Amino acid sequence: MPAQGRRVVITGIGLVTPLGNDLKSNWTRLMAGESGVGRITRFDPAGLPVQIAGEVRDFDPTQFMEKKEARRNDSFTHFAMAAAEMAVRDSGLSLAALQGEQTGVILGTGMGGMMTMEETAKAFAIDGIKKVSPFFVPRLISNMAPAQIAMRFGAKGVNFVTTSACSSGTQGVGESARQIRFGYQDIMLAGGTESGVTPLSVAGFAVMRALSTRNDEPQRASRPFERDRDGFVLSEGAAILVLETLDAARARGARIYAEIAGYAANSDAYHITTPAPEGAGAARCMQLALSDARLQPSDIGYINAHGTSTPYNDVNETSAIKHVFGEHAWKLAVSSTKSMIGHALGAAGAIEAAYTALALHHQTLPPTINYEHQDPQCDLDYVPNHARAATFDAALSNSFAFGGANACVALRKVEPGEAA
Question: Quick one: which of 97, 102, 110, 314 could link to 186 by a disulfide (CB 3.0–4.6 Å)?
């Protein structure tokens, strides 16, 4: 349990991802090892060197907000609102329970309203200010997603975004847990959201040579830790977790997915995009999260890896895991769910924390799909290609970002009769 403070548990989960727009379809397809990656449909990618992505499909924001409000918000806010609605419904909390100053919202996002920015800039360049909407700035700014959620539920507590590239979502979850742990809030809507599949985003990551160019076989493009990986697949989505104290959850008879037992964030202080050699910063972050959770390395049975499918990052994360876990590194399971949904940037860590909580709850390990050939430098158990039943009590979810921003959450199973 945490060294001090109240114990924090997850009682509701909402998901919008390339695998589906609800929790059930996400978990079913994740366990089946299905891919949500395909050719880009939102715009014509012809002329771009990368033409594939993990898009959210068949999503209608008006199922979760009024048409007028949908028009006034960017899709990253649409995704967050939908995930929040589903998470609250899943938690069983009433609207009255969420209203007031003891409920807060912290979300991670890396890019905010990227599509709004691109579309408005293009229109402004052609036709000037008459094409700039008075809702341009509210649609664009990153904090509008948690702000809209707060307005929807009357949550008057802490409200902000964490923006640290690919670690944003994990920090959204971790910082929210701290708010409850130390008594600042009683309930938090926590997570991340991103809608970065845009022409300029694809072009930007492509010219960095960060993206997979397997345009002819999109579902096989994301292959973390596998010998022939050639880059990550850009994706999008949102995950919202309802967090509350263990005491409160038990008092109302809530289903508990998992406890957020520990959290840590640190910096490589090394390079704008490249991680520190041998994953030194990542290793330190995992160690800090374990310490915060009062867990030993041998207590961990599963790691939901950052696992981007880039040649350099996967080797570094593997090295970091070996450094932290020693001989136990070859006994625990490590998988990357990015193999199925791609890399959702600022939302990735929140989605992966949700998947990790579900893995603990169901005692089943999500697979790393597209694993065909072993990389000699990546020699751990990556749960290749097929989900697997397992018995484990604790897990980590890792996120390592551009700029050297690392974040890690430690989750543990809560037994029904366990003392709070």
Answer: 102
